[in-house]
């Protein structure tokens, strides 16, 4: 199959273990694909303000990106918003209430910030280990403690693109999934212990379809590469979904192929094999 677009997850897929950079091999592969007329679109759970130094850099291939698991489509060059699906205040209030009833920390994502109570921030610090990157890189730079989330969500100036439940005990997984399934929204496991919640029409699959429409690309000619639960809709919607070798089994099962792990430059290997038709 000849591909016209590469949909590329970032953390755990395109980014190296530092969560900051692309490998030279991947950068070269993406540039080669672009010069053959193939669009390259990062599709990530991150906000535009939280994109890593690897994106945007002014690289030739940079054009559009899908953010917050499909809540936004923006131009990489200037951040211009091209499409959005935000959550309304009543739904945010319902999620805050749910988190409080289940005694779970909750974060509201809006305007390049993550809002949470000081109490929840301290709870996350107490968990430490599995949240080290989130605490030390994301919250330290973009987090903001507020006294009252319910008052915050009524502020008209804020557009809520995502709600995070950043840490769930394993034994609460089924209970939380059942509660979220009863609400008009989309959700996905971004790690074995964290859930990202968005507007019902905001998934990575919907984001992929929207950029295909904007770029005039047939969705059947797309290659998607990802490693986490929030990538599953995108992997299924693409012409070919490729799971990283480091992906959980449910992600591999959703894909049409599996590449090498992130540590082995699996994203670059997939672009080389399926787009550039190269073998190593």
From TrEMBL:
Keywords: Hydrolase. GO terms for cellular component: cytosol. It holds the Pfam family Hydrolase_3. It comes from Lawsonibacter faecis. This is HAD hydrolase family protein. GO terms for molecular function: magnesium ion binding; phosphatase activity.
